[in-house]
Design brief:
Layout (H helix, E strand, L loop, with lengths): L7 E4 L18 H13 L3 E3 L1 H9 L8 E8 L3 H12 L4 E5 L24 H10 L2 E5 L6 E11 L27 H5 L7 E7 L6 E3 L1 H14 L4 H5 L5 E3 L2 H23 L5 E2 L8 H10 L3 E3 L9 H11 L3 E3 L15 H15 L3 H25 L1
Helix pairs in contact: 1-3, 1-11, 8-9, 11-12
Length: 384
């Protein structure tokens, strides 16, 4: 009997102070996450770690288990302070994809040590979680950077709008990345007002454009005198900087994939065999590099999501090639009046069962289309 499909869920943070961080839009409240866990338990899913999933597949037992995988990107502190205990309450497990640049030093913290639970897991906490067994640790590369990818200026940095470009100060203060959310005002002040913002994208698949110090200084000066009206003038400057070479880009990709794997293996004393590219940013050459590094599987970008995880896992095991696994996300995009555990439960159910192509999800999708179709003329009439 063929194995039922395996939903792999993408999470980031679970926090009851989501508005306190520019990354709060990625998260769920503890009550919402509890509702998701309730769904998985009620529907009979066994939530396992990635290594456990692989071992089950290698033993040929995928068809005998109703499996799900909960993954948590970036390595947020709340994965320890909130998520782990909730998983244990429901008899569930998960996998954290940790970014090494965000990993600092220090001891294992409790809730009183980190009000709001914002921040990242440090080395001691990664070891603690991995040894605890509830949350397995795997790789989310070294930097999680966003980089400039063209020489066209599209905006100017302003600390007052620092949340729009929260990633830019990382380039100027690598050592401060683990604690950048501790004082957002100070973090945003690390970049000068008027610093040019070029077209940008995820770091790993992109050749980086590096503006020269002279051009940055010129941009800061022009912005101080003319404000954003100088955009056309600054773009007219011919020599803004330079692109990294293909060889430099390939060296950077190797560093992102290899250095992070090596450091995690040394820290946790175990093989690191599973990878998640930040933001789904990769291309075919990046995937080939990951396979060369020894990764068994990586998470597919949402643009490539499709059902069939058991087949991709077994194909990877039989061929010895890296497998790309589909993940799905659960929306919080429901009316504010419906927010709470019940809305979160049904949102989770709809996302998972749509992925699994259940009869209920097909019916619900059809009903939603009928309702939208019925409401559309009413909305148009109100607008006339």
């Amino acid at each position: 009997m063929p194995a039922a499909d395996i939903p792999i869920i993408m999470y980031h943070c679970v926090n009851d102070q989501l508005d306190a961080s520019p990354l709060g839009f990625l998260g769920f409240t503890p009550n919402e996450f509890r509702a998701h866990l309730s769904y998985f338990r009620r529907r009979g899913f066994e939530c396992v770690t990635l290594p456990e999933l692989w071992a089950i597949a290698e033993a040929g037992d995928l068809a005998d288990r109703r499996l799900a995988l909960l993954t948590f990107d970036d390595g947020y502190l709340d994965n320890l302070l909130i998520v782990a205990e909730m998983l244990e309450e429901f008899g569930a497990k998960g996998t954290v994809f940790a970014t090494l640049d965000f990993v600092g030093s220090g001891g294992v913290r409790a809730g009183a040590d980190a009000p709001g639970a914002w921040g990242y897991l440090n080395e001691s906490e990664l070891r603690h979680l991995d040894q605890r067994g509830t949350l397995d640790i795997q790789c989310h590369t070294m930097t999680h950077d966003t980089v400039f990818v063209s020489d066209r200026v599209i905006d100017f940095y302003d600390p007052a709008r620092g949340s729009s470009y929260f990633w830019l100060p990382w380039h100027l203060d690598r050592a401060g990345k683990p604690s950048w959310m501790n004082d957002l005002t100070a973090h945003y002040q690390k970049v000068k007002r008027g610093h040019p913002i070029f077209e940008y994208d995820r770091a790993i698949p992109s050749r980086q454009f590096k503006p020269s110090d002279d051009f940055i200084g010129r941009s800061v000066d022009l912005f101080a005198r003319h404000g954003p009206d100088c955009l056309a003038e600054i773009n007219a400057v011919a020599d803004k900087g330079s692109f990294e070479t293909v060889a430099e880009w390939r060296k950077r990709v190797e560093y992102e994939l290899t250095e992070s794997k090596t450091r995690l293996e040394s820290l946790l004393d175990k093989p690191i065999e599973f990878l998640c590219f930040p933001g789904g940013g990769y291309n075919d050459e990046c995937v080939e590099a990951a396979e060369t590094c020894g990764y068994k599987a990586f998470m597919l970008a949402s643009r490539q999501r499709q059902s069939g995880n058991p087949k991709r896992i077994m194909d990877g095991i039989r061929s010895g090639r890296i497998a790309g696994l589909s993940r799905l996300s659960i929306t919080r995009d429901y009316p504010s009046a419906l927010r709470g555990e019940r809305a979160a439960y049904w949102s989770c159910r709809f996302a998972v069962e749509s992925y699994l192509k259940s009869r209920w999800a097909r019916w619900a999708t059809g009903m939603a289309k009928l309702v939208r179709g019925a409401l559309r003329p009413m909305v148009r009439r109100r607008g006339t």
